């Protein structure tokens, strides 16, 4: 029987890769994205390849009513909701002293409240069904210190805490919850800057974020398709956490063993980027969403 799934942020990056992987498995997927036209184009392409089905919905996850309508409408149409991937997000970073309340509010609204809106809509429905799986996309920045990304890291640590708490709460009631914490992933968001309607952030305006994050990821970014395969494998096995790739898992383990050491390592990396910037290279990386 095909599973019924919703993927937010489904028009590009990890969301698109998840949608493609689910359709290849024969599932029925709704790709929700703030860019409805892009989501429709992706859904049309995936639906044509099959064997599963894909549709699209224009949804801004900051709008709780819109998310609730998406979730309830999908469940009413298909009779249930098996999987919700709360994947939509954005990355706003830079020197903390340059960031305004507007930068913080946008990051909190999308990365944290967007996930919470999905949870508030889907969790009660899944309890009534007696089954379901919620998968929240966080980041390695939700497990490690990330200089130059205070708003982003704040939201991702919160998503990890929300996910693990909800997993423990829902386990005996048939609802599963997992959290995804990827390191550097090769997606279009690496090429985006601060949204145009927000104040400028001088410390990141001249940055080649892709080059910086590639360098900090050991010289190679992880593929979105590879991560999607990791995520679905984790869902199949009911993993609490999916941390990928291998380098990210190694850093996470080190963080659990010696937080002070990891803080020192990340501070040193930030220092190297600052020296590179002063020498005419790239500046300290922003807290870009590595999706």
Automatic annotation (TrEMBL):
> Lineage of the native species?
Bacteria, Bacillati, Actinomycetota, Actinomycetes, Geodermatophilales
Any keyword Disulfide bond?
no
Protein keywords:
Oxidoreductase
The protein in question is named: NADP-dependent 3-hydroxy acid dehydrogenase YdfG
Q: Give the UniProt entry's GO cellular component terms.
A: membrane
Q: Which family does it belong to?
A: Belongs to the short-chain dehydrogenases/reductases (SDR) family.
| Any GO MF annotation of the entry | oxidoreductase activity
């Amino acid at each position: 029987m095909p599973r019924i799934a919703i993927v937010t942020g489904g028009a590009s990056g990890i969301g698109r890769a998840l949608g493609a992987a689910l359709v290849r498995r024969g599932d029925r997927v709704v790709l929700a994205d703030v860019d409805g036209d892009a989501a429709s184009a992706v859904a049309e392409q995936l639906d044509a390849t099959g064997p599963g089905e894909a549709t699209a919905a224009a949804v801004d996850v900051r709008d709780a009513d819109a998310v609730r309508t998406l979730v309830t409408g999908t469940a009413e149409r298909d009779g249930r909701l098996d999987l919700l991937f709360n994947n939509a997000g954005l990355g706003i970073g830079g020197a903390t002293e340059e960031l305004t309340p507007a930068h913080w509010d946008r990051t909190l609204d999308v990365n944290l409240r967007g996930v919470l809106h999905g949870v508030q809509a889907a969790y009660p429905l899944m309890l009534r069904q007696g089954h379901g799986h919620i998968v929240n996309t966080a980041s390695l920045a939700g497990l490690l210190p990330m200089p130059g990304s205070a708003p982003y890291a704040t939201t991702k640590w919160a998503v990890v805490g929300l996910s693990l708490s909800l997993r423990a709460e829902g386990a005996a009631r048939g609802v599963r919850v997992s959290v995804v914490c990827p390191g550097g992933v090769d997606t279009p968001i690496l090429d985006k800057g601060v949204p145009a309607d927000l104040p400028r952030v001088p410390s990141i305006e001249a940055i080649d974020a892709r080059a910086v994050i590639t360098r900090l990821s050991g010289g190679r970014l992880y593929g979105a398709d590879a991560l999607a395969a990791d995520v679905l494998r984790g869902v199949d096995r009911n993993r609490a956490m999916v941390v990928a790739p291998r380098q990210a898992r190694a850093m996470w383990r080190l963080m659990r063993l010696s937080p002070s050491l990891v803080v020192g390592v990340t501070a040193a990396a930030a220092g190297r980027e600052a020296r590179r910037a002063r020498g005419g290279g790239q500046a300290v990386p922003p807290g870009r969403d590595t999706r």
